[in-house]
Amino acid sequence: MLKITPHTTQDSTRLTLEGRLAGPWVEEFERFWRGMKNSATGSLVVDLTGVTFIEQGGKTLLGKMWQEGAELVAAGCCSRSIIEDITSSGRQTPSKPIQTSYPTS
Fold first, then answer.
1. Could you tell me where the beta strands, DSSP code E, fall in 1-105?
2. Rounded to an integer, what is the distance from CA 34 to the centroid of its chain?
3. Which of 37, 8, 4 is nearest to 20 (CA)?
């Protein structure tokens, strides 16, 4: 079971998760996130302090979210270790667009 509680302020949207980020709950959380991310204000914070277990699919989803700018917050040693794994490689930055037109003289 996974409980998702959104809390929106002027500066951020916080998604507080409680339970297990595993099995069908990973897909449910991804649907929820995709549905609300375009309407979210400011930064997105994913609070994992109430999560008791994260399977590989959940870790992959959290990695996607982090790459897209979400901040991940965890308290337990297992959750913190997973977050450290995700964030240790650094965020990918979009490459600079290639100039396709040349200035005319």
1. 2-8, 12-21, 43-54, 71-73
2. 10
3. 4
CATH architecture of 2-88: 2-Layer Sandwich (3.30)
Note down pLDDT in tens along the chain; length 105 residues: 999 999 988 888 999 999 999 999 999 999 999 988 877 778 899 999 999 999 999 999 999 999 998 999 998 888 889 999 998 877 776 544 433 334 454
Within 8 A by CB and 6+ apart from 44, the residues are 12, 13, 14, 15, 37, 65, 69, 70, 71
Report the C-alpha gap between 103 and 38 in whole angstroms.
36
In one-letter notation, the amino acid at residue 13 is T
Residue 64 has, within 13 A of its CA and on its CB side, a CA count of 11
